[in-house]
Design brief:
With about 425 residues, this protein is α/β, with parallel strands linked by helices. The protein has 14 helices and 14 strands.
Length: about 425
């Protein structure tokens, strides 16, 4: 029986051309985030199931790849439930591992702590184009900073990175979970059903305001509450900059604190005044972000020209407290790394400033002192900063050179047994 050549469903092999691009992007990301004071950390791929199932990951908790117990802990004969078989799983994001990491090492870390984490995560999701069961995430987080300086720094670091990767004319959509709750309270929705309202609101861009109204009616909400709720969005529609926020805040009155309104205004104004990339800050009252751990500001990178969003994040001030027993302010931003790489490849992105790539093609049969001379010449060119590939010459030299050209080699040197060839 022959072995299986294809990767496991939902996984993929990465060919050299894509790997080169990924390495380039990772380099830009780490360099840029480093300039903003973020430091790299790494956490294990496997986490305790108790942490992964702590109701912090939303729908992702249904997609965990679980790992069976090992050795004496695994007893198939006496097992009566899943808990008897498994106690850990592959991480589905980087936020839960980060919070555990911070709780374990808080005394060894500066405050505030600015973390950069890049690594693979796993979700037992339905595979489709651009969506795999194993994929890389790229997160930056600030823990221990209660003020909106955290949001400003996160947004500026992320947008600067995207600009250096060649992206422009995108939008940072921003909202606040406290505004969402104030709008629901103003509309007299039952507090215990706010999340149901937000789940429906999150579909606004797909089904429109009338579709949201119909769905809320089907879910049994009062029509007067629905109308009052949707009038807020109608009032803000078409308003640019901070005008939409002002309209909604004025309508909400005492339901929304001045602190929330002023904080969001300050974030938008500060980013607009100091940004170095070409993008737009947009207050969007329909932005929800599905993770239940968000407590305040939420934001998302919108690239409509590429068909969707390419990252997002927000403030999650209550999550660390589940580990430490006391709340710690926390805010994070995640770039959609795989989505960005896919766009760059589709757009035919060329890595700037690559060193000259030369291929030495050596005819079979050359050896001894002559081979050493050729390799020495290659070493000298490498020492001057050039990339030199030394390979034996194939019978079909034309096809070989075409393959190397496709890999970016622009210069060829051919060495023959008979120099007259």
């Amino acid at each position: 029986m022959s072995l299986v050549k294809k990767p496991v469903t939902g996984m993929k092999d990465i060919l050299p051309a894509e790997m080169q691009l990924r390495d380039y992007a990772i380099g830009i990301i780490k360099k840029t985030y480093g300039e903003f004071g973020f430091t790299s950390i790494e956490t294990p791929a496997v986490e305790s199931l108790a942490n992964l199932n702590s109701k912090q990951g939303g729908e992702n908790e249904k997609l965990i790849f679980k790992v069976m117990k090992r050795g004496e802990k695994l007893n198939l004969e006496t097992a009566q439930s899943e808990n008897d078989l498994t106690d850990s799983g592959l991480r589905y994001d980087l936020t839960v591992p980060l919070v555990r990491f911070y709780a374990a090492h808080q005394g060894e870390l500066p405050s505030p702590f600015k973390a950069l984490q890049m690594g693979n995560v796993w979700r037992a999701d339905r595979p489709q184009k651009g969506r795999y069961r194993q994929f890389m995430q790229c997160d930056i987080d600030i823990l221990g900073e209660a003020s909106n300086l955290a949001e400003i720094e996160l947004i500026l670091a992320t947008t600067t990175t995207l600009g250096r990767l060649g992206f422009e004319d995108f939008k940072i959509r921003i909202n606040d979970r406290q505004i969402l709750k104030a709008m629901a309270a103003y509309s007299s929705f039952p507090k215990e059903r706010y999340d149901e309202v937000f789940i429906t609101l999150d579909k606004m861009d797909k089904i429109g305001i009338d579709g949201v109204s119909e769905e809320l009616l089907k879910e049994g909400f009062d029509k007067a509450s629905i109308d009052k709720y949707l009038d807020l969005f109608r009032a803000a529609e078409g308003k640019e900059g901070l005008d939409g926020l002002k309209v909604i805040a004025d309508m909400l009155g005492d339901f929304l604190s001045d602190e929330v309104r002023e904080g969001l205004s300050e974030i938008i104004a500060s980013v607009d005044a100091t940004k170095t990339s070409k993008f737009e800050m947009v207050f969007d009252p329909t932005l929800v972000r599905g993770m239940s751990y968000y407590t305040g500001t939420i934001f998302e990178v919108s690239m409509p020209q590429y068909g969707g969003s390419c990252g997002g994040g927000g403030r999650y001030d209550k999550m660390v407290g589940k580990f430490l027993g006391q709340d710690t302010p926390a805010c994070g931003f995640s770039i959609g790394f795989e989505r960005i790489i896919m766009i760059m490849m589709d757009e035919g992105f060329k890595i700037p400033g690559e060193s000259e790539k030369t291929a030495f093609l050596i005819e079979k049969g050359i050896g001894g002192e002559r081979l050493s001379e050729i390799i020495k010449e290659a070493q000298e060119e490498r020492a001057s900063g050039k990339q030199v590939l030394v390979v034996r010459m194939n019978k079909n030299k034309k096809f070989q050179k075409q393959q190397l050209t496709d890999q970016g080699y622009t210069d060829f040197k051919e060495f023959y047994l008979n120099p007259l060839n």
